[in-house]
Fold this protein.
Amino acid sequence: MPQALFPTLLGSSWEALPISVRALHGDRAHLDARGRVEVRGDTRWLSRRLRKMLKMPEPIADAPLRVEISRDGNKEVWTRHFPDACLESHLSPSPRWPNAFAERLGGARLTFGFGVEQGQLRWVTRSVRLLGMPLPLRWFEGIDARCSERDGRYRFDIAVRLPLVGLLVAYAGWLEIADAQ
């Protein structure tokens, strides 16, 4: 049976991550985490329309967040429950890039590698496809996703800036594992 996705892809870097990061990205079959989130985003028409199409959350300050993670070997389903949206993504090893994973969000497929520095895990965009068609990577240089630990809690900070769109969505906050099996 394959090992969990993140520990497998990170190899020896896995042990350098803080306990809360390893707990959330570890190998439990099902995990329920709860915390708080702040969501930001551009208020222009195009940004609002894209968020709605992609089922992304709208801007809100200090709101509850619930994240469910279901794992089957090295495949994961992440369901993020924001107050006004439910964002689901499917993660699996990248067939093209070693030590990278593909994240499917509706018709979009993003591939990420990793950077690990001073206990912080950072996603590095490798490729983006929409409905199977590759898109220029330079369009996605504004994706910044990272997680770390502060005060014993898992911290996340995700921002997606796109040309002509501006800040599509940015969400940051913390999570604690509520129930793990």
Q: What stands out?
A: The chain has a mean pLDDT of 92. Residues 78 and 161 are 22 Å apart (CA to CA).
